[in-house]
Amino acid sequence: xxxxxxxxxxxxxxxxxxxxxxxxxxxxxxxxxxxxxxxxxxxxxxxxxxxxxxxxxxxxxxxxxxxxxxxxxxxxxxxxxxxxxxxxxxxxxxxxxxxxxxxxxxxxxxxxxxxxxxxxxxxxxxxxxxxxxxxxxxxxxxxxxxxxxxxxxxxxxxxxxxxxxxxxxxxxxxxxxxxxxxxxxxxxxxxxxxxxxxxxxxxxxxxxxxxxxxxxxxxxxxxxxxxxxxxxxxxxxxxxxxxxxxxxxxxxxxxxxxxxxxxxxxxxxxxxxxxxxxxxxxxxxxxxxxxxxxxxxxxxxxxxxxxxxxxxxxxxxxxxxxxxxxxxxxxxxxxxxxxxxxxxxxxxxxxxxxxxxxxxxxxxxxxxxxxxxxxxxxxxxxxxxxxxxxxxxxxxxxxxxxxxxxxxxxxxxxxxxxxxxxxxxxxxxxxxxxxxxxxxxxxxxxxxxxxxxxxxxxxxxxxxxxxxxxxxxxxxxxxxxxxxxxxxxxxxxxxxxxxxxxxxxxxxxxxxxxxxxxxxxxxxxxxxxxxxxxxxxxxxxxxxxxxxxxxxxxxxxxxxxxxxxxxxxxxxxxxxxxxxxxxxxxxxxxxxxxxxxxxxxx
Length: 602
Ligand code: NDP
Known about the structure:
Elements: H1 13-27, E1 36-38, E2 63-69, H2 73-84, E3 90-93, H3 102-105, H4 117-120, H5 124-127, H6 138-151, E4 164-170, E5 175-180, E6 185-193, E7 202-204, E8 215-218, H7 224-227, E9 243-247, H8 251-263, E10 266-271, E11 277-278, H9 287-293, H10 298-310, H11 323-336, H12 345-370, H13 374-379, E12 392-393, H14 397-400, E13 406-410, E14 418-419, E15 423-426, E16 429-432, E17 435-438, H15 448-452, E18 455-457, H16 464-467, E19 486-488, H17 501-522, E20 527-529, H18 531-541, H19 580-593, E21 599-601
Parallel strand pairs: 2-3, 2-6, 4-18, 6-19, 8-17, 9-10, 9-17, 10-13, 11-12
Antiparallel strand pairs: 1-7, 4-5, 5-6, 14-15, 15-16, 20-21
Helix pairs in contact: 2-6, 2-17, 11-12, 17-19
Bound molecules: NADPH dihydro-nicotinamide-adenine-dinucleotide phosphate.
NADPH dihydro-nicotinamide-adenine-dinucleotide phosphate binds at residues 27, 112-114, 198, 204, 206, 247-253, 255, 270, 272-273, 390, 411, 415-416, 439-442, 557-558.
């Protein structure tokens, strides 16, 4: 993983930290999240589904055992497990035109997973699918979502192109009532919520953005009709005579830019903050090797190994060997190198910091080495700690700046000044373009109801927004008091393993299937976490180190609420203090005990 072993010049930590702070300060702004605009009204067409036509259907007014909001990985893995547990009428409600979630919408050229396919793509063993590459591309991941849907019969009951508008608990009938924008009003004994953290695209609130007369779109609704090409990587021939600007240089742009650079007549990559771009080292998976390792239980072993290498496990080998595990291995090696009597929290933190400085220095040198134009190479250097922003890995992104048609427009942390009828303005210069592609990311940190698009109303009219008004409260991140028969499928307050979200979901689905099975066998109409159990879980969570992302010197971004005080509720956005490996072990024991301590079945 690009881990040079030759002696390196010592890092001047004070100077480096001063540089981090200076770069952060350039970017801090008082409007925080409000700098972005919600996509609606004049911009509503940005959200149209370019991939699947909407087909008319009759509204549903029936009853199902389990309704799940979200047809991405969370809904699919939970649905599959429920089917295995004998619940055959699972209804997944999804705003896209098919299963896939993120992988339905994000079909931009070059989209691929950043976490190794072997651990990232769910249910590989169950579906018998061998990933084609170490980091599979989006079409293969979407196909796996569809495969899961087909294999477990989840299509039959699914409602696509359907946006949930309201979910409320009906105390009299002990069931949930779900209403949608397609006129549905059906009921379910149980609900699951897995709408994902990043699914509402946002636009930068740039002066004049509505005035642009050329073509424009957001990366999560890629307009292949305009660009030519396809998600499989066919060249975007229609851009040969076009001047294109891509605004934003996050994980999406890092993957799309190399493809744009291949065909655009002229490509402007408009940067506010550089991403850290480490080695990708993608390669095909060898079927002979795969056959050898794919013995029963292989994917669970790989999941556990990847997690053990990241989060508190004692792994003697590293099966995945990538940028994520490289970072953890380095930190561990430095900590283990400390003499026993010096293994204090302070020294361990210092070892962690040293390893981070060293890694980021290597990544910065990578930019300087790969990019031929020295000035551009300098501007592509990321001046922050690795976990201040989403780490990126790519072997063609930095190289794209060596193409004569590709130009980095660095805004020195200020962003685009304004959009005009003909293009965009940076540093007093207007750049005329035919097309603007917004790689400006997704809403994070806006209120729950706005992002979800619906409110959940539990017992006694209590809404989820009220229940979580001062921060999230749950047991295991799954069960919430006064929301009986509801399951939240997401990582926070559970393992909180952000390097591989699917592992969190895989464990949640086991819990949900076991709880539902138990409730049905016990003839219980309701299952709900007790107030006491929830409080004690939350109290335990707060005994940990706190949030691992968003150090005070971090440059603003969605990891740290755009550099603004995230409020008192943020301290609850944490995981199990003992680490993800310990959490999964604990959860396994909790499930297997069969008593589901903390849940009341009535
Ligand atoms: P991000 O939010 O990461 O990036 C948005 C970009 O837009 C940033 O570079 C931001 O700059 C820039 N921007 C915002 N406003 C302006 C402005 N006014 N002028 C210029 N630039 C501006 O969105 P992405 O879609 O790239 O990624 C979102 C997340 O999705 C990732 O962090 C990752 O979690 C996930 N993802 C995962 C992938 C994978 O696993 N393979 C691939 C792609 C995405 P600034 O940094 O200064 O705010």
